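sorry for the late reply, my laptop died twice this morning and i had to redo everyting from scratch. anyway the thing you sent over, i finally got around to it. pasting the sequence first so we're on the same page, its 95 residues, then the predicted structure underneath. double check i copied it right bc i was rushing
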Amino acid sequence: MDIAQAEDLEMEGACGGSCACSTCHVIVDDPAKFDAMPEPSDDENDMLDLAFGLTETSRLGCQVKMSKEIDGVKVRLPSMTRNLQAADFKGAKKS
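ok and here's the structure:
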């Protein structure tokens, strides 16, 4: 996420990289690079469930840590984002 924002790409990152929203959702183009990444945490998976246009190779940009194994990784931004945050669901009444 930091790299995308430093390059003036339109990645919102509403929660500031704390894995509490899905506005930095990216789609990894290369399945081999995706497989080389560490597994997403439960928190990341929960936020990805709220992301628009979820794919098999979706990740939150704020949770992708660059390494030699994924050097050169290419990602796409979905056509839109949803600014749903974890805080939107805390204390919500169950029907």
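DSSP finds three helices and three strands in the chain.
thats about all i looked at so far, will dig more tmrw
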